[in-house]
Amino acid sequence: xxxxxxxxxxxxxxxxxxxxxxxxxxxxxxxxxxxxxxxxxxxxxxxxxxxxxxxxxxxxxxxxxxxxxxxxxxxxxxxxxxxxxxxxxxxxxxxxxxxxxxxxxxxxxxxxxxxxxxxxxxxxxxxxxxxxxxxxxxxxxxxxxxxxxxxxxxxxxxxxxxx
Length: 163
Description:
By secondary structure, this protein is mainly alpha-helical. Helix content is 55%, strand content 4%. The chain has two domains: 2-54, no CATH class; 61-158, no CATH class.
């Protein structure tokens, strides 16, 4: 390893042992599980200088869960919008299987529902009420889609949701 680092920089190992040892110590402290060989490491930006970094992880489990939930939500949202037709009856709309599946996603759907309300208010209030068991919409705002959306968005911000 020392020879590879030093030769990439144009140094003889005997000329720069402190430099090489310093790099090894930094690397070993930051990435203890990768110090024995270079499997899983990639030479970055300055190959002649021997700058090595670990390959980035493919994805964290949390990120994968969020991406998976978002993909599921978008698929169900698109299915609901495509099949709902021109119904104006809220009960008919929210009883659609795709809408019910969104409710079934539970709290994982909340940021996506809030994002939908922020972009284009639609009938997501029923789902939010079912999932959160909250109702931040004041009586005087009922029937006013923009005011209802605003009430839910404020509710979400107060609770730290990001969308």
